[in-house]
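Protocol step 4 of 5: obtain the predicted structure for the target chain.
Materials: sequence only (see below). No template structures provided, no constraints applied. The aim of this step is simply to have a reference model before the mutagenesis design in step 5. Sequence pasted as it appears in the construct record:
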Amino acid sequence: MNKTKATMLMQFLVSYLLVFLLPVASILLYYYPNSTQAAKEKEMAWNSHMTEQFMNAMDIFTRYVYDLPYELMRNRDLKIYLAPHDDYHRYILANEMRKYNATDGFIYNTLLYVKEVDYLFSKTGNVYTVDDFNRRGVGYYYESWPHGRMFEELDRLDAPLVRGVEAVVVPGNNRARMMTFLLPMPSGEQSPGVLLIQVLESTISRLAHTVSDSYNGTIFILDERGQPLVSTQTVGYEASPAFDQLIAGLAEQPPGAAIHQVEGKDYIVSHTVSERNGWQYVSLLPLTESLQTIRSIQWNSVLIFLLILLVEIVVIYISLRYNYHPIKRLVQAATELFQHRGLPAMSEVETIRYTLDQLSSDNSRLDEEVRRHQPIVRDSLLFDLASGRFESWEAYQRQGGAHAIAIAGARVTAAILSFAGYRGDEEALRVAVQQEEARLDGASDEIAGYLFPSVYPQEYILLATHEPNASLDEQLGAMQARLETAVGVAPAIGIGQAESSETPAGAHHSYLQALRAAEQLRLCRQSTLLRFAELAEPNSGSVAYSAELLQSLEMAILKNEAGMVQAVLERLLVHMRGEGMPSYRIRSVYANTVSILLSGLQRFRRDDVRLLRLTDAVLLHSYTLEQMADIMRDTADKLCDLMQAAKPEARAASSEEILAMLESQAFEADFSLQTMADHFGMSLSGFSYHFKKTVGHNFKESVERLRIHKSMQLLRESDAPLASIAEQVGYTNTSSFIRAFKKIAGATPGHYRDTQK
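Step 4 output (structure tokens):
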């Protein structure tokens, strides 16, 4: 090919490539950076939202932890200022601490340290000495907190302190990782005791997963001094200098979200500070994971573009190099190359247009991906408003920008719409809710409503602004009827009270009230609509009664009394269904009852892995009151069947056998009716009736007569002191021996000995 043809070939090639490259390059250079930035901003908003949600959940649970010392100080039976030097006072204090065993599932254990006597009293009823905490498997042995320094710090503690997660050897020689709250009672230099509240690291991690199962980031909690307390996942960079430098820098910045680099890897970092206790919450989400979807679309588009470009270069070169009619051949080659089955043949212009359409389609898909996340940002903003994140409407507008929703009415009311148990099409439910939001917004000039998803499945939140005289209740009733017609299920609606809209706090207060009302409906569904003002006042004595029933249930399981287990369980169910029982207390009683029953099952099936799956099923889900009752009854039935199967076969106890056992063991200090009942394979109540029917006297009277007759013989035949004689016949207390002797013999032991001499 001569020089003229080569020059013409190059000119044609460059011209065609420029026609193809200029529009495509313009699209790529403009859209790709903007789409990536939009995706980053969306992920930062979502990461910040999840951090705020986790902080709010932790604030709710730690509020009870910090209130517990005040609650204990109000208990008049916990007289820690009067040091319990004797066994009786220590028994009273330990028994009072057991009453707090069923109050909160967040707390693993509560220990009350009384300084003057060096004893620690657990909420499980156990009593430990200071030395027990220096022995593995006996007390709570802190591996990174030396025993001597531990109690020196407790003795001089005058303000609340929190120790970060550390390894602790619990009684039984098992190792656990837990965070410890140290709270003086009361605060000050003259505090007589310290409350140690232990929280498992796994409990905090499960709490993070309940906020969002799909969140893959790691949340770190630091105290007000910047010291690490706990993290929701174990990662490799938390001990690196780069991570420490990041935390130090965040402490000097206002709360928010940004992109930072740790050890050469980019993370979306959200930082917020709790107003309740000053704790810092820092979450790190790998940027590559959050942008994986949009990156995949972008790379696919680039690969398609490069492939088309390569094919275009080859086609143009061949057509211009070997043909005298390059335009005609180019049209033919391009038409054959890009022609799809079922489409007519295309001209040169149509082929280029088709290629650009393909790129435009990819561009549209990216735009649609960004637009699809816009409602998520709007819903997240509304949820933050209901959760009380904003202190003023100005802050709300600054944070929301174009997504901010106008709150124009004089009053704001929140409502919770729960579709719990709905098994239909989720998309149909979402569309029906969107239609209701549009209908409510245009129903009246006095009402504007916003419906958006909650963080919980099948639950929606309504924020309505209205004038004081607006009929919002009628609107909600009509909405409930229309939704039932549309999806086949009437939502349970909990309604908060109308609050002032002068500040965002009004929306937050109404939302909290709606949550209470919706939870009450979910558990005790006597109707499908409940206002917060209609909730009954809780009974102040129900907590103590619940603790008493739970203690009775534990005792019945320990004694293997299946009938008593069933009876106490039915009393608990009646108590849970009692009028005015708050929803949070129902769930607390349910969780503690099931935990006790599962502990009983574990006694018989210690290595059964199915018990772990059963624990997840009964404790980590939200159930209605009837579902709770069914689970409690089924678990109790399994336990009672195992109790009955483990009991030795009952056999008849003759009077000779009973009297022989009395004569051989009545002088033992630990001899009891339960010992005899177990020996003969009978229940305690059944053997008590059989004993009196066979012997003619009850057990206590028969044992006392044998012991006193034996003591009379010893008083006549020896000069041993009364304490020695009392111990020989089975009395651990001389005063009890003297009272029993005088009751049966009619005189004191000393007078009887003098008379016989």
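Step 4 remarks: DSSP finds 25 helices and 18 strands in the chain. The radius of gyration is 38 Å.
Proceed to step 5.
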